[in-house]
Design brief:
Largest interface: A-B, 51 and 49 residues
Distance between the termini of chain B: 30 Å
CATH topology of one domain in chain A: Thiol Ester Dehydrase, Chain A
Strand content of chain B: 25-35%
Order of helices and strands of chain A: EHHHEEEE
Shape of chain A: elongated
Strand content of chain A: 25-35%
Structural class of chain B: mainly beta
CATH architecture of one domain in chain B: Roll
Radius of gyration of chain B: 19 Å
CATH class of one domain in chain B: Alpha Beta
Distance between the termini of chain A: 10 Å
Shape of chain B: globular
Strand order of the largest sheet of chain A: 1-3-4-5-2
Number of helices of chain A: 3
Largest sheet of chain A: 5 strands, antiparallel
Oligomer: heterodimer
Strand order of the largest sheet of chain B: 1-3-4-5-2
Helix content of chain A: 25-40%
CATH superfamily of one domain in chain B: Hotdog Thioesterase
Helix content of chain B: under 10%
CATH architecture of one domain in chain A: Roll
Number of helices of chain B: 2
Radius of gyration of chain A: 16 Å
Number of strands of chain B: 5
Structural class of chain A: alpha+beta
Number of strands of chain A: 5
Largest sheet of chain B: 5 strands, antiparallel
C-alpha cells in the first residue's frame, strides 16, 4: 500500500505507538536476533554494578528497528530508500514509545520525512529522517 | 563489521521481525508475500545490522574458550585495571545509524560486508564528560557483487556513564 504523491502534503504526519511498557524480555529477544549480546542490554548485575547504569537499557537499534516498523507501515513494504537516525536518549525497560513521521517534501517520486520517537515523558529518544518512493 | 558471508535466511528474518515487534506478514509468510509489491519475503529496514551474527570476531558475542565481560558468579568475568564506566565497559554506545537502500534484502541473498573507517571527532558532553565519536561505513553487496545497502554507523565512547 504505497503512498501517492498527489495525496501528500508538507506537514502531513503519521504516528504509531511502538511499544507500551517495554519488557526486558523483548530486549533479550532483540539481542538474540541481532547478535548484539552487549551485557548492558540484558545483564542487570553487570550493568548496575560494573557499568554503573541504573538498569539495563534497550539497544539503540531496537528503537530504530521499531521505528522502522512505523515507517514501513506508512510508506509501504520495500519502499524505503534512506533511513537514518541519531540516538538522543537511552530507552529503559518500562518505557512507552511513540513515533511520528512528518512529510518534509515530495519531489520526483520521493517523499522525504523527518522521524521522531519520544518516550512517555515526551523526551526524544531518536530523531532522524527517511526517504521513500511514492506513486 | 566486516563479514565474508552473510546468508540471509527466512527464519532469521522472522525472528528479527518478532524482536522489533513487527507482525507484518511479509516478514514470515511466503504465500502472503507473493501478493505484495516486492513479491517475496523481504527483511525489515534495520535487518542488515544482524550481520553481526556472521562476523567471526564480533566483540559483543560470547565465544567458546574466551573470557566474557558479563556477569557470572561475579558482576563481570573480566577484571579491568580501571573500570570507571567508560560508557559501560562495552566499548561505547551507538550514537547514529544511517542506511541507504539500493534494493531490499530477501531470503537466499548471500551478502558480504566491507567496512571503511570514517571520521572521528570529540565533543564535551554535559551528561557524560568527553565524548569521542567514530564513524564506520559498511557496504553490503550481494552474491553478484551488486551494492545492496550502504550503512554508516557512529559510535561514541564516553568518559563516564551518561548521567540520568
Amino acid at each position: 500500500m504505497a503512498l501517492k504523491a498527489s495525496e501528500l502534503s508538507v506537514g502531513d504526519t503519521y504516528t504509531e505507538c511502538l511499544v507500551e511498557d517495554l519488557k526486558r524480555t523483548q530486549i533479550v529477544q532483540y539481542a538474540g536476533a541481532s547478535g548484539d549480546y552487549n551485557p548492558l542490554h540484558t545483564d542487570e548485575v553487570f550493568t548496575t554494578e560494573v557499568a554503573k547504569y541504573p538498569s539495563v537499557f534497550a539497544h539503540g537499534m531496537l528503537t530504530m528497528g521499531m521505528t522502522g516498523r512505523m515507517l514501513s507501515n506508512y510508506v509501504g513494504d520495500g519502499r524505503l530508500t534512506k533511513y537514518g537516525v541519531r540516538f538522543t536518549s537511552q530507552v529503559w525497560p518500562g518505557d512507552t514509545l511513540n513515533s511520528t513521521a512528518t512529510v518534509e517534501s515530495v519531489e520526483d517520486g520521493v517523499v522525504n520525512l523527518t522521524v521522531v520517537t519520544t518516550n512517555q515523558d515526551g523526551n526524544t529518544v531518536l530523531s532522524g529522517y527517511a526517504a521513500a518512493r511514492v506513486d | 563489521m566486516a563479514v565474508d558471508k552473510f546468508p540471509v535466511e527466512a527464519s532469521h528474518i522472522m525472528m528479527f521481525a518478532r524482536s522489533v515487534a513487527d507482525d507484518n506478514q511479509i516478514y514470515y509468510d511466503a504465500d502472503y508475500a507473493k501478493g505484495t509489491e516486492p513479491g517475496t519475503i523481504i527483511a525489515p529496514p534495520t535487518f542488515a545490522q544482524s550481520s553481526a551474527q556472521f562476523d567471526p570476531d564480533y566483540r559483543l558475542r560470547p565465544k567458546v574458550g574466551e573470557p566474557w565481560f558479563g556477569s557470572g558468579g561475579e558482576p563481570t568475568g573480566i577484571k579491568r585495571e580501571s573500570s570507571g564506566g567508560g560508557g559501560g565497559g562495552g566499548g561505547g554506545l551507538h550514537a547514529e545509524q544511517h542506511f541507504e537502500y539500493h534494493r531490499h534484502i530477501k531470503p537466499g541473498d548471500v551478502l558480504s560486508a566491507t567496512v571503511k573507517p570514517g571520521k572521528t571527532w570529540e565533543k564535551e558532553g554535559k551528561r557524560s564528560g568527553k565524548l569521542i565519536f567514530s564513524e564506520t561505513v559498511t557496504e553490503y553487496r550481494d552474491q553478484d557483487g551488486e551494492l545492496v545497502i550502504t550503512a554508516r554507523g557512529v559510535g561514541v565512547r564516553t568518559e563516564r556513564p551518561v548521567d540520568q
